Amino acid sequence: MTMDLLRTNYHWRNRYLLMRHGHSQANAQQKIISSPERGLTNYGLSEQGEQQLVDVLAQWRWPEPTRVVHSDFLRTTQTAARVAAAFALNMQKEERVRERHFGELDGQTDSYYPEVWAFDAQSADHTQWHVEPVSRVAARMCAALDALEQCFEGETVLVVSHGDPLQILLTALAGKPLTQHREQPALLPASITLVGG
Length: 197
Known about the structure:
Shape: globular
Strand content: 5-15%
CATH architecture: 3-Layer(aba) Sandwich
Number of domains: 1
């Protein structure tokens, strides 16, 4: 990665609220939905996810966002729309913060996740089951943030993405080996992590 963001002394131009989408229909059905073919128009928020967003917005304790950037999957778009509406903001789609593609496991049971993560812990470049390598996810997620850093200054940007990509991004920003992305606590649906500023 060539990202300036990865320097430990990096001075952030903006603040970022990294948000995982609310509980989704894919979560409820315990399915891996990682391809645009399945995820762009299907598997939006579940009733539980909708309620999570009501609760998050009612108890908002983060800086107020000035921009909303989101993965174009349905579950992230719906999550971003709820927050954007609450703060009267427009939304910007960003394909680089999409879900990690899980290759041959797309559409299968999410019980495969631990097996993928076990391979992740051995190599950030593995492509078992044709999954998107952790290293590639980190590169595109960092590139998305870097582009926002180049375009804006003094903003508070809400970035709505997915569990694995956000954990991989946070691992990269912390300067830790990408093989350790599952060693930090899992990001819960509708959770928000503040970075920068």
